[in-house]
Give the backbone structure.
Amino acid sequence: MAEFETYEHDVLVIGAGGAGLRAAIEASAGGASVGVVSKSLLGKAHTVMAEGGIAASLANVDERDNWKVHFADTMRGGQYVNNPRMAELHAQEAPARVRELEAWGALFDRTKDGKILQRNFGGHAYPRLAHVGDRTGLEMIRTLQDHGIHRGIEFYMECTMLRLLKDGDRIAGAIGYDRERGRFKLFRAAAVILATGGIGRIYKITSNSWEYTGDGLALAYQAGATIQDVEFVQFHPTGMVWPPSVRGVLVTEGVRGEGGILVNKEGRRFMFDDIPPEYKQQTADNPEEGWRYTQGDRNSRRPPELLTRDHVARRIVQQVREGRGSPHGGVFLDIAWIKEKLPNSAEHIKRKLPNMYHQFKQLADIDITQEAMEVGPTTHYAMGGVRVDGDTQMSEVAGLFAAGECAAGLHGANRLGGNSLSDLLVFGKRAGEHAARYAAEHPLGAADTSEAEAATRRALEVFERENGENAYQIQADLQEMMQNLVGIVRRQDEMEQALDRLGELRSRAERVSVTGNREYNPGWHTALDLPNMLVVAEAVTRAAVQRKESRGAHFRDDFPKKDSAFGALNILIRKGPDGRMQVENAPLRPMADELRQIIEEMK
Amino acid sequence: MSEATFRIWRGDSKGGGYQDYQTEISPGMVVLDAVHDIQAHQAPDLAVRWNCKAGHCGSCSAEINGSPRLMCMTRLNQVPLDKPITIEPMRSFPLIRDLVTDVSWNYKVKKLIKPFKPRQPDAPDGTWRVDQSDADRVQEFRKCIECFLCQDVCHVLREHHLHDQFIGPRFFVYAAALEMHPLDTENRLDELRQAQGIGYCNITKCCTKVCPESITITDNAIIPLKERVVDEFYDPLTRLFRILRPSSREAR
């Protein structure tokens, strides 16, 4: 029998990005003893990669902004399959969450009168993103980290969870291992908050790091919770495409916010060619107006480059498919052109986009102040995740909460840029608050140790096999397959093929063998991540098969139009009693009349 | 396609040695790509930390041909390929395995530095007003990605192992970001002088040279902090002032 080290907390937070840290701070403030486990070192989570900013209707730059406009923008961007209650709370509470960060030491860029500066971003009606150059995520995670370490929270760095443990129907803890020595750790907790981030690693081209194997979704699924909306995977329109080693690395939307334009190899600004009807009113119809908008002219409309990410990504794919792409299979993103407009453009670009300048200079030998970048879509974000209650963030399993990217609801079919960082803060706080309250009302459950033993036994089996499959190879094959068959443009026959291939990959994963020992062994860690990735890949594929329409980030070649019947429902995934994956249609969460009215007014 | 040889340190706290791996190289490749390739095809248990692969997270610090660098930002066209490229773990921290070191000391040190303490808000709505020029100075320090390469190269830690008397360049930058934060009211100078050992720094600027974020660590953070310490504790006028008005600092 495997041995575990046992720890006890009122609230266990799994994940230490923005949502996990914000949740931990709040749970601790609520009087709970809090433990945070993180797959990497503290401060390295993917939040650090967020560049553009935090969306909040502070109205510091344009006084016309308020929560109602932010709410309507979020719903429009999500194609109205969002959880309206979450979109409402998010829009209402984001400003307070941003101001709170400032009180904890974050230092945002400023307006001329010394307030927090806000920038334009795709799908937001007014300049709304509080930011620090193009490294806002770093500012946010460091602020939360540096504040959080003084709140009596216990951090367990480089720890990965294998299973959630239950006591009957409610949550009782989790079992996992530490990377350093490979020791199993059993956490007993009255409440557990999942804040594990995304699923990007199931695709080949992604902006996500090795950590984003969908652990939270898989843990919740195995524990009997429901996941939803997983067919909506955001492909960010602008990832690097060249050189090959950096393919997928993010190029911030801030480049377009500062005046960057998309052109094809013929030099045409193709984004002007196809503007969706619901955005026609708000979009510039000539380059001059678009430029004025990026420079803060309040009477101009936004350039089509700042349409929602799903739309921009598909237009780029179309250019490439029709032979009008750039040499390495992308299109050109040009910010250098602004030298026609600004005398000191090179300095201006370096000041506004310092990370992008260095990233291209160092990794691609390109000076973005002088030449265009080559960009193409990269897997960036999962709109779907654990189905939660909009107010409390509790899942359908008592005591199990989820916040941030691994939770579903706020973003619907497509997330607006900047709404992720605000999501982490608003719902991280809510999850922490309600988890602490739940823990105060419920004593620790008796964690089912037989489940923990089974999990550790499975984890060690890979060492007993010899000459089995290589976990890295299976991961690479999965990524390639998902990229090709369940990517930006989807078709029934390809996705059915994907389901067959997933079956093969699952049986190969059962034959994985690992060499070496349990101490900091990435081969072993990769093997242990595989089951989660396979669950999530299957869920994405089954949900994408089920939604026979095109909406937001989910585009079907065989059903290229929106279908109002599908527009009235969310697709749910859960584990059936027979252990197989079940897919179900559920009506959208009801919308309050006053919210419906706001949407009508802002149409 | 050409090949290159990577001479990678393999081992743990009990011992180890260099092992050579040959791998194909492609245009634009960085050292971390080569390490991943070796991991996937030749040495699945090769221990390495990494996350963002774009120089934003500071996880993949190592010593490449003897220089402390991020593996994800070191392109192969920047190193000679006609001889083996050496990759070793950071030397200032205890080894866990292969390229992974125990950097937990840094996390403990940070906790000892007094946290941010803002002044009362400037506006009735609880917000502050800050001039961009005041933010600029601190924003430079807040670019730090905590890769700890500056800690690795600093001879006070690397050669003299004064980890219990000296917090290292990273945390002088951290302290400077707090001390120079336009809203902060805390005083950290006494600890900087005593327990945190700022006097040990003899401004050789090795930290500044290795910083992947190009933070001017020595000139903009450490030297001004040293000056503040001198002003606070060694300037006769200030000392007299302090005796007469013990709370004088609170008022500035």
